[in-house]
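User: Sequence recovery, please. Input:
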């Protein structure tokens, strides 16, 4: 029997996976703009391959690709009637890839429907979360991740509905170009509120890269006593516009902004040293990043496949220019 996410976190940091929608868009299976996850239905083999890559790179959790898989979001691309099929397929694909090696997280995300002062909108968001979660829980997810909430109020609704599943709950907020949420709350405020609402793991994900996320997650870490998660994007963005989706480069010119694998490894080490419990990455992070993060955290051995190196008689540019150890 697999250990639960909470048991694993008690033993030390857990490594999450990377980004799905942007990587699958680069591969041609997701449309830029809506970024809806119908790839789970239209090209399940492509989604399975990416899950496999993250698993082999050392990820200990695979997230079902149900981000943006809500009825209203799917309706924008004519797929409102495929909600159950899509959520069910996404969880099944993740479970098949995970086997007995990784946990599988269900996923709910921002809805673009939340309005703080509208009881009708709040109820609609609740129904949206419940509809997705019912399918995901039925398919056997191990815990629930709610993510990318720029409104603390919507994140709290995610905690409420995810807790109703009786599974462990992780909910993370995001920060756009200001160091407060859209409804004006600091990272410390968010951490305390989410924990008080019953989230087992609280944290920050998406929009910002490691450099501009670190001060915020450090603030949250100091404010709460429980488990803290952080999953920044794999891109460098300027301090005055840290939200990568606000840049003119989004989404088609992001390649020059992508972090190297060693930079992401350093991020993992910084997160561990700050006391972050769930260390992951989000949009723009690929298997190579996750693999170096896993090695930095001691979850994967260094490369050990046989190779007879003779610098006096080089057989590759790697030897010729003596790149070993650089």
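Assistant: Recovered sequence (326 residues):
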């Amino acid at each position: 029997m697999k250990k639960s996410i909470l048991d694993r976190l008690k033993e030390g940091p857990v490594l999450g996976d990377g980004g799905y929608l942007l990587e699958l868009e680069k591969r041609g299976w997701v449309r830029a703009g809506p970024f809806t996850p119908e790839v789970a239905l239209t090209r399940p083999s492509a989604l399975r391959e990416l899950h496999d890559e993250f698993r082999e790179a050392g990820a200990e959790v695979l997230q079902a690709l149900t981000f943006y898989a809500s009825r209203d979001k799917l309706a924008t691309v004519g797929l409102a009637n495929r909600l159950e099929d899509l959520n069910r397929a996404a969880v099944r694909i993740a479970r098949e890839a995970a086997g007995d090696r990784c946990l599988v997280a269900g996923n709910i995300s921002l809805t673009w429907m939340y309005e703080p002062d509208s009881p009708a909108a709040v109820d609609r968001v609740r129904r949206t979360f419940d509809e997705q979660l019912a399918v995901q829980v039925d398919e056997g997810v191990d815990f629930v991740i709610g993510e990318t909430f720029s409104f603390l109020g919507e994140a709290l609704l995610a905690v409420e509905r995810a807790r109703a599943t009786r599974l462990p709950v992780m909910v993370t907020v995001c920060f756009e170009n200001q160091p407060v949420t859209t409804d004006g709350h600091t990272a410390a405020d968010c951490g305390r509120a989410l924990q008080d609402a019953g989230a087992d793991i609280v944290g920050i994900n998406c929009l910002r890269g490691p450099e501009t996320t670190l001060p915020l997650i450090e603030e949250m870490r100091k404010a709460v006593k429980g488990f803290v998660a952080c999953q920044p994007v794999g891109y460098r963005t300027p301090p005055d516009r840290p939200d990568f989706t606000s840049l003119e480069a989004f989404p088609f010119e992001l390649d020059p902004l992508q972090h190297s694998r060693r930079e992401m490894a350093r991020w993992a080490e910084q997160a561990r040293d700050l006391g972050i419990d769930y260390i992951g990455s989000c949009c723009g992070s690929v298997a190579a990043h996750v693999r170096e993060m896993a090695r930095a955290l001691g979850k994967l051995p260094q490369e050990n496949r046989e190779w007879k190196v003779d610098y006096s008689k080089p057989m590759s540019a790697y030897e010729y220019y003596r790149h070993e150890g650089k």
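The two ends are 41 Å apart (CA to CA).
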